[in-house]
Predict the structure.
Amino acid sequence: MEDHGAPSFRSMGVHIKVVDIERSRAFYTALGFRKVKDYGLGTSEPATYRGSFFAIGESSELEIADAHPNVCPEDFGRMVHDSKVSLFFRVDSLVPIIHAAASAGICLHDEPRVYTWVQDPLIRTIELVICDPDGVRLWFVSDATEEEQANTQAISRADIYRTVPDYTPKP
């Protein structure tokens, strides 16, 4: 067999099958995800279902949709009840994520925690988890600088993010 070289990956995308497209659009927009476009019913992009694309960093995308021709319709009505697969987002700081969540009434799944990596004890991250309306776990990770730790601890002590989840679109 002829060697054609290794694949050249340019970006990564994730497609989440959602129960309620409007609720999910409001959730991801509230957390600061940059919506690139909506498509489907009610838009200029024809499709028999509705969805949205969000840009992640320079070259990755998150797509949410309430149907897809290659996916069993029953999958769209099911919630995610485990953490077997989760999404990981490297961010400059957790502080804007926490404040955006608090402003939108989105609860953190867990308080921010500092992790030291076994392979290199000098590498430390601070991480938090938020579950989307369908139960998908979103891991937000930043470097655990002294300033980042102090800022997230101050927010944690203030309990500003402990609210009842409400993912309905805000006017």
Summary: Residues 146-158 form the longest helix (13 residues). The chain has three helices and eight strands. The chain has one domain: 13-158. The two ends are 59 Å apart (CA to CA).
